[in-house]
Amino acid sequence: MTDIQTSSGGTAGLEARLLRALESCLDRPSAQGTLRLCLSMARVDLQAASAGDGERLLKCLQHSLQAVVPDPGRREACAAELAEVLASGAVATEGASRRVEVAIGEEYDIVQARAIGRDVATDLGFSPTMQVKIATVISELARNIFAYAGTGTIAITGLDDGQPGIEIVATDDGPGVADVDLVLSGDYESRTGLGIGLRGSKKLMDEFVIESTPGKGTTVCARKYRE
Amino acid sequence: MRASGDVVRIPIIKLHGNLIISIQVALSDPMVQRLKDDVTEQIELTRPSGMAIDISGIDLMDSYISRAIRDVCIMAGLMGVRTVISGMDPMIAITLVEMDMGLEGVRTARDLEGGLALLDAEAALAEAESGDLAVFDDPEAVSLELDETWLT
């Protein structure tokens, strides 16, 4: 069992760095809530954000801080930190299709990945039930990365070529799965329930492909199309 | 970074004869471990007859979370505590069924109120049954019982 505090390799995605900056003056749940609110209010996609997006986001965050952080000194220090993070954030200026990548390095990242996935699914027009299913699959895949490989990434992409849909790609360079078919067959169940989670995820998706090389890592690609 | 021991704790409330646990946050591994420790400790300490876990605050259940909740119920059951889970979100129910992941061996109720009513009814029934045993001291009652057995 890996403890949050002892897990290493916490990655510094732009979102994680913004959260960390916010946490200098807010507790974690408030920091997360504030960031999510501002991202959606400012309509900013961190992976495909322009300089204008960054400015809009910063303005929104500053406004929010004004409402919740009474101490002006702390507020300004926090805002300066946020500005620095946004200025250094290497964000693509062109972003036709919506793509968000979440680095998985600690257990909390699982929650973040599925929250982001849910937002993307909402934006793509998936029904509330489908949003839950998609977020559940992301949670399973992210948890597998965390439990078996330690670190990896979850990439969530909105598909819009013909049929609208969502693509989730989970990548890690962990120990890999020796027999993918066995895991998906239902005859195998690990201590932590790997079989059930992957099998269940496959059932929820339209396409579900696992590519794994023992010792090298695993890539899972899952797609769900909107009805 | 948070200090160790700074694990968010799920509160456990004793009300009448029951423990009530309301899960309102996303469960992490350390939280689940902590919850298992706390639940078994509270059962030892307070000797409840029942335990209700309300999950209406959970917006998503993956295989890990459903397993964790089921484990807590089974542990309490092994210690002689009747358990019930209440308040599952309809969309989670759909998702779990489609994933082929039920909560086998765990009883459920629509909401916390229903869950507590179920626990109380069972406690009352158990009490009545143990009361019935005393009836067997009465020779007439025993013969009545025997007559019924003959009839079937």
Structure explained in plain terms:
The complex is a heterodimer of chains A (227) and B (152). Chain A is α+β, with helices and mostly antiparallel strands and 227 residues long. Chain A has helices spanning 14-22, 28-41, 51-68, 72-88, 107-123, 128-149, 180-185, 194-204, and strands at residues 99-104, 152-159, 165-172, 207-213, 217-225. Helix content of chain A is 50%, strand content 17%. In chain A, a hairpin with a 3-residue loop joins strand 4 and strand 5 (217-225). Chain B is of the alpha/beta class and 152 residues long. The longest helix of chain B is centred in the last third of the chain and has 24 residues, at 112-135. The mean pLDDT of chain B is 86. Chains A and B meet through helix 5, helix 6 and helix 8 of A and helix 1, helix 2 and helix 3 of B.
Any chance you could write out the topology, listing elements then pairs?
The complex is a heterodimer of chains A (227) and B (152).
Chain A: H1 14-22, H2 28-41, H3 51-68, H4 72-88, E1 99-104, H5 107-123, H6 128-149, E2 152-159, E3 165-172, H7 180-185, H8 194-204, E4 207-213, E5 217-225
Antiparallel strand pairs in A: 1-2, 2-3, 3-5, 4-5
Helix pairs in contact in A: 1-2, 1-4, 2-3, 3-4, 5-6, 6-8
Chain B: E1 12-15, E2 18-22, H1 29-46, E3 50-54, H2 63-78, E4 82-86, H3 90-98, E5 108-109, H4 112-135, H5 139-151
Parallel strand pairs in B: 2-3, 3-4, 4-5
Antiparallel strand pairs in B: 1-2
Compact summary:
The complex is a heterodimer of chains A (227) and B (152). By secondary structure, chain A is of the alpha+beta class. Chain A contains 8 helices and 5 strands.
List keywords for this structure.
heterodimer; A: 227 residues; alpha+beta; 8 helices; 50% helix; elongated; B: alpha/beta; globular
Query: Most extensive interface: pair and counts?
Result: A-B, 28 and 27 residues
Total DSSP helices of chain B: 5
Mean pLDDT of chain B: 86
Q: Could you describe the largest sheet of chain B, including whether it forms a barrel? A: 5 strands, mixed
Order of helices and strands of chain A: HHHHEHHEEHHEE
Which class do the helix and strand fractions of chain A yield?
Answer: alpha+beta
